[in-house]
Specification:
With 135 residues, the protein is of the alpha+beta class. The chain has six helices and seven strands; from the N terminus they run E-E-H-E-E-E-H-E-E-H-H-H-H. It has a three-stranded antiparallel sheet. Strands 1-5 form a two-stranded antiparallel sheet. Strands 6-7 form a two-stranded antiparallel ribbon.
Amino acid sequence: MFECPYNEECRSCCVFEGDGESPIVFEDEKRKLEALGAKDFVKLGAGLYRWRIKGRCPFNDPRTGLCKIHEEKPLSCKMFPLNLVVKGREVRVEVSRACPWVREHWDEVLSRPPEEVFPKEWEALKAALRKLLGE
């Protein structure tokens, strides 16, 4: 079962090489993030936005690696290493191989249901899908 052992040492979930890796957020999350000081969002449609981050998340403290908005972070962050991928009308879920734990445990990831491997993250994913479907 996934339990991030890296905490402060990893940071791969808070550093993004390109726009396609950065979190997808809902309209209410976007407003909250803007109030907290984030900027640069691209509308994906139907209340979804991509928070465009190149490099370190502005809410990740570079000295400690800790999230400054941990209690208020968006669902995309809560469900990592599960990623919600939205392309037009297509929505799918992927497991990020940017996560060192995932790379080290890839056989386990492939052999067990994701809700068993990533139970907390799976709950965040379900919440995101409910929001996406308007439930």
